[in-house]
Each structure stands twice: as C-alpha cells, then as structure tokens.
Design a protein that fits this description.
The chain is α/β, with parallel strands linked by helices. It has one domain: NagB/RpiA/CoA transferase-like (Rossmann fold). 29% of the residues lie in helices and 21% in strands. It contains 4 helices and 12 strands, in the order ααβαβββββββαββββ. A hairpin with a 5-residue loop joins β2 and β3. The two termini are 29 Å apart. 36% of the residues are buried.
Length: 209
C-alpha cells in the first residue's frame, strides 16, 4: 500500500532534490573525464569478475553520463570464464525488468528510457535470482549501501528478488559514494561500489551474508 504520510512525502522530495543535483553534476563531466572514469571502472569490474568466476552475472549498458561507458558489457563478458553467461535488463511495459543474454554489441537495440537491450529472447523476471554477481546502476550510494536510482523503481523490484547472499555492485563516479541518502522502506541496500579513484569498496554493514 502506498505511504501518503508527511514523512514519506518529505523523503520523496529529498530524493528528487538529490537526483537533480547528481544529474546536473554528471552532465558537467567532460568527455575526457568520462572516458578516463570508464576505463578505471571497467578494469576494476573485470578484475572482480575474473576473481569471482561467476557462471551467470547481470550488468547493463551505461548510457549518457553513466559510469562504465557503453563498452562495459563487452569488457565484462570477456572477463567471464568460458561458457558463463552475461544477462542484460529488458524493460517491461510495467517498468519491471526482464533479463536476456548478451550476445554481442551488434545485437543491442534502443529501448525505453534510453536503455539499450539485447535482442535475444528474455528469460523472465526471475532470471536475476540465478546470478552469482549483479552489477546495477545508481546515481549515488551511501555508506550503509542505500542506493538512489532514477526513480522508476525498476531496479528496486529486481533487487527485491536477488538473494541476500548474491554480491551486488554499483559503478559510480568519484564523489557519488556519500555519507547518507534518503531512504524508503522498499529500498534495498547494495553490497559494494566501484569508483574510478578508489576501485572496489565493500560497504559498511552491507556485505553479503
């Protein structure tokens, strides 16, 4: 049931204001700064994949100013062990996420909300529950693992399906790991972030059990 209390409204307003500030900061990043950040994020995530050797993982195609660059799926797929599978999100009409295998950069199509999606048949919303590693986007994450997305709720629903023992990692730009973010009851924490300067960091109290 939706929460219409005064406190819930204050929290939603705080999230909106924080999103606006973060998006404006990302838009001010120059092309060279974005490219350098993407290289560092790609390298650190690829190192993580090679170390964990997941049999199935999820990621996404970064767009616009999102950290990681559009080459991120190709970099992660190359780091996977032979026969392992990379799934990318497919946005449903209800804004929930389905998942489909990545089969190469030429097999991506433009979709809603600026996303690029694989053309392979989707495997269902529950496919994310079988991943050994989940890489997902955010505008910021705080030190408790609270994640601030763009407000559509797609990844909130996906994260609600992910087992607590599955490592969840968010690529960020420098300055987007913050002390505290506004949080609502449906928000699910993530376990770690990757930033260009500091690499992989596991968050306080958010390590997978």
């Amino acid at each position: 049931m939706p929460d219409f209390s005064d406190q819930a409204e204050v929290t939603r307003d705080a999230k909106f204001a924080t999103r606006t500030t973060l998006l404006a900061r990302r838009r001010r990043l120059g092309d060279a700064e974005r490219a350098t950040a993407a290289r560092h994020v790609q390298a650190d995530l690829a190192d993580l994949v090679r170390r964990l050797r997941p049999r199935r993982m999820t990621a996404y195609v970064p767009v616009a100013s999102e950290p990681g660059g559009p080459e991120l799926p190709a970099v992660l797929h190359a780091a996977l062990p032979e026969g392992a599978e990379l799934l990318l999100p497919v946005l449903r009409a209800d804004l929930d996420l389905d998942w489909a295998p990545w089969t190469g950069p030429d097999d991506l199509v433009a979709a809603g909300r600026g996303m690029r999606e694989p053309t392979a048949p989707p495997l269902g919303q529950a496919a994310v529950t079988t991943a050994d590693l989940v890489v997902l986007p955010a505008l910021a994450v705080d030190r408790r693992g609270v994640r601030l997305g763009r407000g559509g709720g797609s990844y909130d629903r996906a994260l609600a399906r992910v087992p607590a023992t599955t490592l969840t990692v968010v690529p960020l730009h420098d300055g987007e790991l913050v002390n505290a973010l506004p949080v609502e009851p449906h928000d699910r924490p993530v376990h770690a972030v990757v930033t260009p300067t500091n690499g992989l960091r596991t968050l306080d109290g958010a390590a997978p059990r």
